[in-house]
UniProtKB/TrEMBL annotation:
Signal peptide: none annotated. This is Alpha-1,4 glucan phosphorylase. CDD domains: GT35_Glycogen_Phosphorylase. InterPro entries: Glycg_phsphrylas (IPR011833), Glyco_trans_35 (IPR000811), Pyridoxal_P_attach_site (IPR035090). The keyword Transferase applies. It comes from Rhodovulum iodosum. Gene3D superfamilies: Glycogen Phosphorylase B. It comes from the Bacteria. NCBIfam families: P_ylase (TIGR02093). Its EC number is 2.4.1.1. Keywords: Carbohydrate metabolism, Glycosyltransferase, Pyridoxal phosphate, Transferase. It is an enzyme of class 2 (transferase).
Length: 805
């Protein structure tokens, strides 16, 4: 009701239509007769952006005048997806837009579908940052997101004969509709050179400089009550064009400095463990971190004159270690550039900074060679040594250091320079304390805290699943949208005639939509009443897509051998990208596609089993798949998935989880109830113990004929007759090494899947379990997560824009 009072009643569809036409004509310079779909889409976006701006200015003013602490979220990645529907829904302008466009002879759905995804992130970490931006606005926390305006986001994925082929992503090809270019907000950033001493003062003489230029995107809250800024930095040359060289006739060379500087914000690094240690990546990290800190200090100094107040006015959250250079850079800004005592500068920086860890996997923890750090950031290398030494003084036994084997360990550095360090699920946080950060935790027992991840219900329920949302709102009103635990109020209605029928109907229609889409887009016919079994996430050994595939092969063989045994029809859906340099992951992609081709061509098993690997997984595809899922695959090796966030989106949308006790699965199961969750597999402790058993994989294969059969089929080339040995790497790894314990968990996984078959056969009971998952997952809202950070880490308060009158 507030939304319509705010906007819907005031802004009629006629007003919106006029402003769409005005933007089309005067901003895009197009006549309506000549306009194409993307012109209309941009005109609509500009019409909405215009309405966001008023809320945005009001919020910024309120934040300034209140003197409240601001939150700064520093992240290498923001995996935003599309923004048009989000903005429209949050402004309460959906009906108005629909009518306005109909008046203009256009279709809103076509226009929404035209928007490219902003894919400035790899996966979970980047999507979390995007959910957090929306929730920061919705809870009214004054905040800025800071990141990089990559020219090219995450690569696009195609399949060529089943193999993944990467293509560059080019989201800026079309005019960006949401951002404001801030030519006036630009900072010069330096690299390289050397450090001299001048009367006890360090002076850095850099050798290279680039300019960071700001681009702002306003992020509007649910019902337009608040808006924050996502500020992304783009790299520019300090001196654009070498006129002297141009005049000498060296035309190409004259443009060189420009191209070189821009390289820094050219492309997002795919999460790729083999790509680490790249100099350009370190430059990117320093580039956006240093620009953001400069901006934060500039804002602080415009409002206050005592640097000691900084920790009361600025909370700076580091999204993983990617911006961990913030520690030394902030010390440099306070000490070298503003004359604060070194010790006080360290204490002040630490009081502002906090660090979120997203992984415990040793190969994913960032380390930079000291010589590279020294060459690129000589003053920072000195300060890192000072910070490390200052830390060592307090623990004379010196058990822990940020410097080891000629490398800077960014996790340790971030920990030492943060007043709070958090994990992203209860289990993950406990494992941080007992493994990677055990020593540091002993020294600073109050520093590590947990903040279990969450997802924004506006995008992941309200927009993505219209049918379910309508049912929820009809049943309990609209309050759930920004108070998601109200979903609990649904449960008393489960006994009422009609509720579970409507719940089932919503799921059925979502599945019918997806079936039609698979038929037209993928040329794949599926039974829309089958169990939709979905695993969508980056391809990684620890996520164990190959265990799912082995179960698929085993199931297919069993159905083929005994087709009349009353099988529960299933559609196995996979989607996800493999990092370009991750050979094993790319082989898994290829294998899934080859297995899918064989299974889908089998007329005997066709009524019961189909397999689809959907190309180019992204936020938009997730929004299409999750509402249509019956089963959510969360099957990582226990102890490896820090949290997962897809698991939460599925549970909210009424998919049951088949999962291990890993990451936030543990907390999902606690909340939805063990009888509404399909648990299997070893615990994190059992995983550690199992690895010590010599020949654990061979043993597991020996004990399970289904597993042995599936592996043998792959090994003999049943799915790759043109090259029977193609997957010897995969089968060899699984049979002999199997670090992620695919074989040892296989039997338990198979059995869980057969329990699922049986449960799905009773549709009434299944739909009840699905509805319980929805009703009991409200805690996984990112609004709850953000309030947790505000209370336990940032000590920040929420504000409200003064209403009219
Ligand atoms: C590091 C150095 C060089 C190049 C790339 C990287 C890099 C990039 C991205 C390292 C890691 C990432 C992304 C990590 C990530 O997405 N982690 C996920 O974070 C989610 C949000 O907390 C969790 O839910 C997932 O469990 C976790 O895997």
């Amino acid at each position: 009701p507030v939304a319509s009072a705010l906007e819907g009643d005031l802004v009629t569809s006629a007003d919106l239509r006029d402003s769409i036409l005005r933007h089309l004509t005067y901003d895009l310079g197009k006549e309506p007769e000549m306009a194409e779909i993307h012109d209309w889409r941009i005109a609509l976006s500009l019409a909405l952006r215009e309405r966001i701006v008023d809320h945005w200015f009001a919020s910024m003013r309120t934040a300034r005048h209140s003197g409240a602490k601001r939150v700064y979220y520093l992240s290498m990645e923001f995996l935003i997806g599309r923004l048009l529907e989000d903005s429209m829904v949050n402004l309460g302008l959906e009906e108005a837009a629909d009518r306005a466009l109909t008046d203009l002879g256009l279709n809103l759905q076509d226009i929404l579908a035209d928007e490219p995804d902003a894919a400035l992130g790899n996966g979970g970490l980047g999507r979390l940052a995007a959910c957090f931006m929306e929730s920061l606005a919705t809870v009214g926390c004054p905040a800025f997101g800071y990141g990089i305006r990559y020219e090219h986001g995450l690569f696009k994925q195609r399949f060529v004969q089943g193999r993944q082929v990467e293509e560059p992503e080019d989201w800026l090809q079309q005019r960006p509709a949401w951002e404001f270019e801030r030519s006036d907000i630009a900072f010069k950033l330096c690299f390289g050179g050397e450090v001299s001493e001048d009367g006890g003062k360090a002076v850095w003489h850099p050798e290279e400089a680039v300019v960071a230029k700001a681009y702002d995107t306003p992020i509007i809250s649910w019902q337009g009550r608040w808006a924050n800024t996502l500020r992304l930095w783009s790299a520019r040359p300090l001196h654009g064009f070498d006129l002297e060289r141009f005049n000498r006739g060296e035309f190409a060379a004259a443009a060189e400095p420009e191209a070189l500087a821009r390289t820094i914000s050219r492309v997002l690094y795919p999460d790729d463990t083999t790509e680490q240690g790249k100099e350009l990546r370190l430059k990117q990290e320093f580039f956006f971190t240093a620009a953001s800190l400069r901006d934060i200090l500039r804002r602080f100094e415009a409002e206050h004159d005592n640097l000691r107040l900084l920790p009361q006015k600025a909370a700076i959250q580091l999204n993983d270690t990617h911006p961990a250079i913030a520690g030394p850079e902030m010390v440099r800004l306070l000490h070298d550039e503003r004359g604060m005592e070194l010790d006080e500068a360290i204490v002040t920086a630490r009081a502002c900074l906090s660090y979120t860890n997203h992984t415990l996997m040793p190969e994913a923890l960032e380390r930079w060679p000291e010589h590279l750090m020294h060459r690129l950031l000589p003053r920072h290398m000195q300060l890192i040594e000072r910070i490390d030494a200052a830390h060592a003084v307090k623990q004379p036994t010196r058990q822990v250091s940020a410097l080891e084997h000629g490398e800077v360990k960014m996790g340790e550095l971030a920990f030492m320079m943060a007043h709070k360090v958090n994990g992203v699920s209860a289990l993950h946080t406990e494992l941080m304390k007992s493994t990677v950060f055990a020593e540091l935790h002993r020294l600073h027992p109050d520093r590590i805290v947990n903040q279990t991840n969450g997802v924004t219900p506006r995008r992941w329920v309200l927009s993505a699943n219209r049918r379910l949302s309508a049912l929820i709102t009809d049943t309990i009103g609209e309050g759930w949208v920004d108070d998601l635990e109200q979903l609990e109020q649904l449960e008393p209605y489960f006994g009422d005639a009609g509720f579970l029928d409507r719940y089932a109907a919503a799921k059925r229609e979502n599945k019918a939509d997806l079936s039609n889409w698979l038929a037209t887009e993928m040329d794949l016919k599926v039974d829309p009443t089958a169990l939709f079994d979905v695993q969508i996430k980056r391809i990684h050994e620890y996520k164990r897509q190959h265990m799912n595939l082995l179960e698929t092969i085993a199931l297919w063989k069993e159905i083929a051998a005994n087709p009349d045994a009353g099988w529960t029809p299933r559609v196995k859906i996979f989607a996800g990208k493999a990092a370009p340099g991750y050979v094993f992951a790319k082989e898994i992609v290829h294998l899934i596609n080859e297995v899918a081709a064989v299974i889908n061509a089998d007329p005997v098993t066709a009524p019961y089993l189909k397999v689809a690997f959907l190309p180019n997984y992204n936020v938009t595809l997730a929004e299409r798949l999750i509402p249509a899922a019956d089963l959510s695959e969360q099957i990582s090796t226990a102890g490896k998935e820090a949290s997962g966030t897809g698991n939460m989106k599925f549970a909210l949308n009424g998919a049951l989880t088949v999962g291990t006790l890993d990451g936030a699965n543990v907390e999902i199961r606690e909340r939805v109830g063990e009888e509404n969750f399909f648990l299997f597999g070893m615990t994190a402790d059992e995983v550690i113990a199992r690895r010590e058993v010599p020949g654990h994989a061979a043993q597991a294969i020996e004990a399970d004929a289904r597993l042995a059969g599936a592996l043998a089929d792959i090994g003999e080339g049943r799915f790759s007759p043109d090259d029977p040995g193609r997957y010897h790497g995969v089968t060899g790894n699984l049979s002999h090494h199997d670090y992620f314990l695919v074989c040892s968990d296989f039997t338990a996984y198979w059995e869980a899947q057969r329990r699922i078959d049986a449960a799905f056969a009773d549709q009434n009971a299944w739909m009840r379990m699905a509805a319980i998952n929805t009703a009991r997952s409200g805690w996984f809202s990112s609004d709850r997560a953000i309030r947790g950070y505000m209370a336990d880490i940032w000590n920040a308060e929420a504000l409200e824009v003064p209403g009219p009158g």
